[in-house]
Amino acid sequence: MLVSEFDYELPPELIAQHPMPQRSASRLLRLDARSGGLQDLKFTDLPQLVDEKDALVLNDTRVVKARLAGRKASGGKIELFVERALDSHQALALIRASHPPAPGSQVFIENVPVQIESRDGELYRVRFAEDIDALLERFGAVPLPPYIRHAPLAEDAERYQTVYAAVPGAVAAPTAGLHFDEKVLTEVKARGATVAKITLHVGFGTFQPVRAVEVGAHRMHSERYRIPPETSKAISGKRVLAVGTTTLRALESASLKNNLEGETDLFIYPGFKFRVVKRLLTNFHLPKSTLLMLVSAFAGLENIRKAYSHAIAERYRFFSYGDAMLIEG
């Protein structure tokens, strides 16, 4: 299967640059993967589509201010993007600079030294002279995706975060969850549906393009996940509705590995056999992206092509701050 099969043309003006004034004001496109049928709804209609047979599973990861502006010892500008903290002072990071820094050199965030220890592919192992969490809070910026063209604003610090975010560690938001406010969650619970949480810390790989020609040649970057035992118990026997592709990957990884906690580099594309998730709430994804391949595996490639064509014709908003889709598997 070729990566080019997952391409489509998107008018640039449909890429949402800002969130809606209210979280739950988004639109919701419902896709029945069995019939291919489409239904235009509002996100506030979601509670009416669940009942006591359903388990809504949320990813409670919290986005950290992962982008740091800095300089080399020579004075040249750099950007350091913390992919994950390894301990209180050591991290894996992307570094963008006119000339990549060499292992053994130092760069500076404000006046705080950062030692470049080694490089492994695109990532550097770096050591901060101060506590990483405190440094990110003081000097970091919200890691908005590259297709959002404005610099982070005050609204982004709140809105590029779900209302139930709890466990710091992500460098990108689990965006399907951005539509929920407390009122919608309360209505979901009032319908008798179970609401449970998992954690998958979204890594920088979510921004990375697929450079392979053949889909199967692509390799995913590893991400950390944890399924609490109480969540595993609560969703057993239920019709699982995964809120977001990250939640789906965590649940399916745990099932495949028979392990509720660990690292996953699971790459889901057409042909994958789903074991856990029956329904998927998701946003609209970039052309030729691994996320588009995942939803195509869940709904069928032709169904996704039809749904995306419909969404473009109906002027839905796309990507992180865009509208939502509910796929009935």
Question: How would you sum up this structure, described in words?
Answer:
Helices cover 20% and strands 30% of the residues. With 329 residues, it is α/β, with parallel strands linked by helices. The protein has a 9-stranded mixed β-sheet. A 6-stranded antiparallel beta barrel has the order 5-6-7-10-9-8. A two-stranded parallel sheet has the order 4-11. Helix 6 packs across helix 7 (301-313). The protein is globular and about 60 Å long. The model has no long low-confidence stretch (mean pLDDT 96).
Set out the fold topology.
Elements: E1 27-32, E2 38-42, E3 54-59, E4 61-63, E5 67-72, E6 77-85, E7 90-97, E8 106-109, E9 112-120, E10 123-128, H1 132-139, H2 154-159, E11 167-170, H3 182-190, E12 194-200, E13 223-226, H4 229-235, E14 239-243, H5 245-257, E15 261-264, E16 277-283, H6 290-299, H7 301-313, E17 324-328
Parallel strand pairs: 1-17, 3-12, 3-14, 4-11, 14-16
Antiparallel strand pairs: 1-2, 5-6, 5-8, 6-7, 7-10, 8-9, 9-10, 12-13, 13-15, 16-17
Helix pairs in contact: 6-7
